[in-house]
Amino acid sequence: MKNQRILVTGATGYIGGRLVPLLLERGYIVRCLARSAKKLDHRGWSSHPRLEVVEGDATVEEDLHRALASCDAAYYLLHSMIHAGGGYAREDRTMAERFARVAERSGVQRIIYLGGLGETGDDLSEHLASRREVESALAATTVPVTVLRAAMVIGSGSASFEMLRYLVERLPLMVTPRWVETECQPISIRDALHYLVASLEVSETIGRTLDIGGPDVVTYRELMDLTAEELGLPRRWVLPVPVLTPWLSSLWIHLVTPLSHRIARPLTEGLRNRVVCRNEEAAQWMPAPRLTARLAIRRAIAASLEGSVDTSWSDAGILPGDPAWAGGTIFRDERTTQVEASPAQTFRAVQRIGGGNGWYAADLLWRLRGFLDRLVGGPGLRRGRRNPEELRHGDALDFWRVVEVEANQKLRLRAEMKLPGIAFLDFEVSGTDSTTTVTQRATFHARGLFGLIYWYAVWPFHGFVFSGMLAGIARSAEGKERTTEREEN
Description:
The chain folds into two domains: 5-306, NAD(P)-binding Rossmann-like Domain (Rossmann fold, 3-Layer(aba) Sandwich); 331-488, START domain (Alpha-D-Glucose-1,6-Bisphosphate, Chain A, domain 4). The chain is built from 15 helices and 19 strands. It has helices spanning 14-25, 61-68, 88-105, 126-138, 159-170, 189-199, 220-230, 246-256, 261-270, 281-285, 293-306, 343-351, 363-375, 448-458, 462-488, and strands at residues 5-9, 29-34, 51-55, 73-76, 110-116, 145-150, 153-154, 173-176, 183-184, 187-188, 209-212, 218-219, 237-240, 331-339, 396-397, 400-406, 410-415, 421-431, 436-446. The strands form five sheets. It has a seven-stranded parallel beta sheet with strand order 3-2-1-4-5-6-11, sandwiched between helices. Strands 14-19-18-17-16-15 form a six-stranded antiparallel beta sheet. The chain has a two-stranded parallel ribbon with strand order 7-10. Helix 2 packs across helix 3 (88-105) and helix 8 (246-256) packs across helix 9.
C-alpha cells in the first residue's frame, strides 16, 4: 500500500480536498493535479512528505500525462457543472474521454469515479444524464472503473446541502416545484469518503457500479423539516406548485443563497428524479456504521457554526455571477491600517477596547446598541470588562465574549447580544519593532431572512464604527509609544 501512488483530481474542490488527507493517513503516495498549486498551500496537509502536486489543466493531454505517469490508480472528481446552459455535459464527456485515454497509455490500473445516483431510463435530468455519459466515457478503455453513485451529500460546504440550509434558514414560506415530494437517499460526507477510500482497497469493487447512500429514504420536504428542527427554527411552510420551472427555481435560489443560478439550475433539475439505492453491495463489501440524515445535518450545521468547514463547494473558484458573499456562510467587513508602533504596543491598545475604556469611536452608537440589546433581553454594555488593560480567554467584554487571544498577535470576540445570527470581531496584529499592521474583521453568520435584513441595516454604520475604532487603536498605540520613549530618555 505504501508504495502505491494515487492521483486525485479535483483536490481543490469539496470532495477531493477531504479525500487527500485520508489517503495520506492510509500510507499512500498522493499526487494532486491542480490548475494552481498555490490553492493547496493553505491546506493542513500541503507539506506532507508523501504529497506530490502537479500543476496543470485536466483539459490538456500533456498535463494529464505528467499527472498520471507512474500512478497505480486515479480518482476522477472533475466536472464543469458551473457552465450549465453553456454545454457543460459535452465538456464533461470530452474531458472524461481524454482522461481515460491518457490513463490507459500511462498504465493506470484503475479509475474511481464519484457519480450521481438516480433511476435509469430516458427521463433523467440533464445533470444525471451527464453523469451517466461520464461513466461510459471513463469505461471506454481497458482500465477498469469503479463507479460510486451518490445522491445529495450532506456536509458543511456541500453545494446541495448549503442550498437546502440557506433556503430553510431564510424562507419561512417556500413556494417550490413538485420535486419536494421526490424521494432521495442522502449520504453524509463522512460516509461518502469512507466508500471512496475503501473502494481502493476492496478488490470486489473493481469494475463495478455501486450505489452508496445513508440509512434513510426521505423526501426533500422531509429533509427541509429535519434541517429546520436542527437549526432550532419553526417548521417551514412549503407550497408545491406545478408551474415553477427549474429556470425560475434557479433564479430564486440565486437570490437567497450563495449559489449561482449556473450551478443551482442543474441541481434543481436533478431533484425531479428519484435517487434511491437499488443495491446494497457497497454496504456489504465496505461495511461501516452510517449516519442518519438527522445526525448528518446536525454535524454539518455544527461545523458551519464553529467555523470548522474543511472544504466548500466554492473552493475550486468563486463562480461568475455569484453575490459578493458567495463562497462562505458569512458576511465580512475587513479593514486594515498601519501603526507606527511595535506589535506589542499595538496589541495593548487593541486589548483596551470596551468597558470603561470605550470603543475608541462612535461611543454614542455603541451605547445605543447596548440599550436596544437590553430592551430585548440581551446583556447590553452593562457587563463591562474584568481588567481595564488585559483580556483573557473566556472574559466577558460588554456584549462580547473573548473566544481566542494570542499575545501580540490575535484577539477574537464573539457577540453575545441578541442577533439574528452569529457575529465575530477579529483583530490580527503583525509587523516589526517600529511598524505594525492591524487587520480588523467583522463577520456575521446571517440566520434567516431577518439576518439578511439586519446586516444590510447596520452596514451603513460600519464606516463610522469600525473605521473609527481602527483609527482610535492606531492613535492610542502611537501615543503610548511616544510616551514610553520619553520616559526611557
